[in-house]
Write a structure and sequence with these properties.
single chain; alpha+beta; Gyrase A, domain 2; 4-stranded antiparallel β-sheet; two-stranded antiparallel ribbon
Length: 528
């Protein structure tokens, strides 16, 4: 189950990467079309504004089609082999899922026309009741269906991935052998997915009410709920399951529900981006959405963790400072600019429970303070880019300066706490590891880091699966105990995590994508 959830978490990050980039374009577009920021003269340039409007339309289209992006991403991420076939089947499964729901709804006289607010009001329903009924449905790829948002994509993606892994290599009798193997996956998808739709027709209203109730509890908890989210989000980092928690607040009622231009919008990130695309967004609604977004991360990602890196550098042994300077500088820069923090976090969370808990508490406090002071900075990463694009560029109403002020205090707090704990408890952060005589590892690296890592993993015959997320090389080995941890760290890894006897994660930071390709090449690893 842990392996499945980790793969699911990684899969959910695939669409988030493009969404984060699209969000930056939306943010820049809203700035360049705001006369209070760029002036009336610039806004009056019709040709330039048309280009900006086109870019915003493209970015908005990505947000409007998130469900199918998630369906494809989940299927690709969970498919063991034949990933192109899995992606093709995911699209088929997603369309069939909603077509089936559309047909069932039609049998019960539920259509886009009969659930429209005006139609319901004209037939005696109150405005409130009509709005609540209409909010239960949406149009996806032109298909009228239940309003399931990204859950519909995730559910259909999970089912298609399961069918794919079970049947992609099936052998059929000679007479129908043409339909065997990977060709069978779209066929079985077409047969099985309608049963999921039928089940969800009855289950989703109950599940949806439950999710909304949970969202109401967190919303009613106020800043306490915001603190709990921030605390748990960092506490789950070692497991990789924080991605799932993030998706729940970004795309489900747990992150909020808002009526925008008469349409129900669900999830903190969806609400923020929908409002961002407007010329005069409701800042009070946007503030409620952003309390789960980038603003809570900025104080500890832009200020706190880079200061922790400096503390680790200052406490390193004299002979080791030059060796760890590059590692800590790169890790601090990644956290500061983009909000990628794992290269720093994995330098201390496994060697110091005190620093781990301190970091999680400070993260929760950061989210709480940004909520308390009504800061309005959205998007997903939390680095200086988000601070600039969604805070500073959006004007003083975002109260971005609060994040900076709190961040300065965070820098001092992280530096002194890290330095004190490291020295008093002799924490083995980078540059302070124990040196065992006669046990020195010598790595022969002729410039081929891929082969070096494969050797450190016990050879290519010990490798069964090679994956990666934003910062980690995720491996399934026949025997994880054969992996040489010091040798892996010598290749530049910030840390090595042994999940169990077969699962291993090596943290390399943002450059992991290229490293994964080199390791696959050296291991002659093919995803057929």
């Amino acid at each position: 189950m842990k392996d499945f959830l980790q793969k699911l978490g990684k899969s959910l990050m695939m669409p988030i990467s493009i969404i984060a980039a699209a969000g930056i374009f939306l943010g820049l577009g809203s700035v360049l079309q705001n006369p209070d920021i760029v002036g009336e003269a610039f806004v009056s340039f019709v040709a330039v504004q048309n280009i900006i409007g086109f870019v915003r339309a493209l970015a908005s289209a990505l947000f409007g089609n998130l469900p199918i992006l998630f369906a494809v991403a989940v299927t690709i991420g969970l498919a063991k082999k034949e990933k192109p076939t899995a992606a093709f089947s995911a699209v088929i499964g997603f369309i069939i899922f909603h077509i089936t729901l559309n047909y069932i709804l039609g049998l019960n006289d539920l259509t886009a026309e009969t659930t429209a607010i005006d139609y319901l009001v004209s037939n005696g329903a109150s405005q409130l009741d009509a709005t609540q009924i209409a909010s239960k449905y949406e149009i996806v790829l032109g298909i009228f269906t239940l309003r399931m948002n990204v859950f519909g994509g995730i559910l259909s993606g999970l089912l298609v991935a399961t069918l794919h892994n079970r049947f992609y290599d099936i052998e059929l009798p000679m007479a129908i052998s043409f339909f065997g193997g990977k060709r069978f996956v779209p066929i079985i998808t077409t047969i099985v997915v309608p049963f999921l739709s039928l089940a969800m027709y009855f289950i989703w209203p109950i599940l949806g009410n439950g999710i909304e109730a949970l969202g109401t509890i967190i919303a009613q908890a106020g800043i306490a709920g915001t603190f709990l989210f921030g605390f748990l989000e960092r506490l789950l980092v070692p497991t990789g399951l924080h991605h799932i928690l993030n998706q729940l607040v970004r795309f489900t009622p747990i992150g909020g529900v808002a009526m925008i231009d008469g349409e129900q919008t669900v999830g903190a990130l969806n609400i923020f981006n929908t409002l961002l695309a407007q010329n005069n967004p409701d800042l009070s609604v946007m503030s409620e959405a952003t309390r789960f977004l980038a603003q809570g991360k900025i104080p500890f990602m832009v200020f706190g963790l880079p200061a922790a890196c400096y503390a680790m550098y200052k406490t390193a042994r004299k002979g080791e400072k030059n060796k760890v300077k590059g590692l800590l500088y790169a890790a601090a820069l990644a956290s500061f600019t983009t909000g990628i923090t794992e290269p720093i976090e994995f330098a201390f969370i496994f060697v110091s429970p005190v620093l781990y808990i301190f970091h999680a508490l400070m993260a929760g406090l950061s989210f709480l303070l940004m909520d308390f002071f009504n800061v309005i900075i959205g998007n997903v990463q939390g680095g200086f880019i988000d601070l600039t694009v969604f805070g500073i560029f959006q004007g003083i109403d975002t109260r971005w300066f609060i994040a900076v002020i709190v961040g300065v205090f965070y820098a001092f707090a992280y530096y002194f706490v890290f330095k004190t704990v490291i020295l008093k408890q002799n924490v083995q952060t980078p540059g302070r590891e124990e040196v065992v005589e006669g046990n020195e590892v010598v790595i022969k690296d002729d410039g081929n880091i891929g082969q070096t890592i494969v050797t450190a993993l016990g050879g290519k015959e010990n490798i069964e699966e090679i994956e990666n997320c934003f910062t980690r090389l995720r491996l399934v080995l026949k025997d994880a105990t054969l992996a040489n941890e010091p040798a892996l760290k010598a290749t530049g890894a910030a840390g090595v995590v042994k999940i169990d006897d077969t699962h291993l994660q090596v943290i390399y930071g943002p450059q992991v994508e290229g490293i994964a390709l080199k390791v696959k090449g050296a291991a002659q690893f093919e995803e057929k």
